[in-house]
User: Which sequence fits this backbone?
């Protein structure tokens, strides 16, 4: 079987790129087709891969201002020539699933999320646009993008969703069934360290964006005066830092090794936003650390209430304070937390994905 992988864009190192890494371990000879590639933003070993970009790669400022070109991305992905491959696997939250394949080619899409900016965040994006002429332009442009998005999804033979939350969105927006294979966590790297003493701080590991709702946790800890450490960077940092007390600290972007050490020593990880899946709670549990999470989205599929964490039901500082007061670190056992995380291991992901692809390929060629 000749396999090709398509990916939206390789210009940052996040969850989608970690999925790509593991997928590339399964099919190491597969070329990776992507709209744009910025080598400086990715690990050195990506340079050894066969990464093929679109014509957009030659556009000015594309590596730093790629989002300004999004209207032509449908054209870019449709120019990717996938003739000669037996299987195409797209990792996509927007564009890569829109590649054109012939009927004899099996196309499986690992769908991270339907286009967030065109669906879930459409109205909030409109409200953030103050000038009427720009608001009208965005309305017309995103109408065209949504039409293309739905049409392009019909080209996919089989869809894999990363969580029940995403499975429901796929059904709602695209009218398609999908199967769930959870993203992989490196449970060989994220491990407990019994030699480290549990400290008194609570932890957030996140990109600092408004929708992550880190603001409610900062407000809560300003009031209850317990230590809170926040790892990550993003445009919301400045706004959040204006209202912190000495017990709240921003640590910025840290290495995986440093993050693991903070996981291992924390009272608990706090997840205040609604995540599509959320790999961070799984990493924390793999390190033997319980999770306090908002009871929606992927967290309800990865955290077991009372055994590996606690939930709060509303995104308010009062709800955070209430659950922190109920939290008792002693009720959570490292081996139970670790066992839960192992359900989302890289090995499980690889086996489930290989089995899925092989099964669908056998059915595809027998028709």
Assistant:
């Amino acid at each position: 079987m000749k396999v090709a992988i398509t990916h939206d864009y390789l210009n940052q190192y996040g969850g989608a790129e970690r999925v790509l890494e593991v997928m590339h371990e399964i099919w190491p000879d597969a070329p990776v087709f992507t709209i744009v590639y910025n080598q400086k933003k990715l690990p050195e070993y990506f340079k050894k891969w066969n990464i093929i970009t679109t014509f957009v790669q030659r556009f000015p400022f594309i590596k730093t201002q790629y989002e300004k070109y999004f209207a032509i991305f449908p054209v870019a992905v449709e120019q990717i020539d996938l003739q000669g491959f037996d299987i195409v696997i797209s990792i996509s939250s927007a564009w890569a699933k829109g590649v054109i394949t012939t009927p004899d080619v099996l196309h499986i899409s690992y769908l991270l999320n339907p286009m967030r900016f065109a669906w879930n965040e459409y109205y909030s994006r409109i409200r953030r646009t103050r000038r009427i002429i720009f608001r009208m332009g965005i309305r017309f442009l995103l109408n065209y993008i949504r039409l293309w998005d739905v049409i392009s999804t019909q080209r996919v033979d089989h869809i894999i969703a990363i969580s029940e939350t995403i499975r429901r969105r796929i059904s709602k927006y695209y009218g398609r069934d999908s199967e769930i294979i959870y993203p992989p966590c490196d449970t060989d790297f994220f491990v407990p360290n019994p030699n480290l003493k549990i400290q008194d701080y609570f932890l957030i590991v996140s990109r600092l964006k408004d929708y992550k709702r880190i603001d409610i946790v900062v407000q809560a800890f300003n009031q209850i005066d317990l230590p809170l450490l926040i790892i990550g960077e993003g445009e919301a940092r400045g706004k959040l830092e204006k209202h912190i007390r000495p017990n709240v600290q921003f640590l910025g972007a840290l290495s995986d090794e440093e993050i693991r050490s903070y996981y291992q020593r924390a009272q608990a990880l706090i997840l205040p936003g609604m995540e599509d899946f959320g790999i961070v709670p799984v990493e924390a549990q793999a390190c033997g650390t319980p999770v306090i999470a908002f009871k929606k989205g992927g967290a309800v599929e990865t955290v077991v209430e009372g055994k590996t964490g606690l939930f709060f039901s509303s995104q308010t500082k009062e709800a955070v304070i209430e659950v922190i007061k109920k939290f008792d670190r002693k009720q959570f056992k490292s081996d139970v937390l670790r066992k839960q995380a192992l359900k989302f291991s890289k090995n499980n992901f690889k086996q489930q994905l290989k089995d899925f692809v092989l099964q669908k390929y056998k059915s595809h060629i027998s028709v």
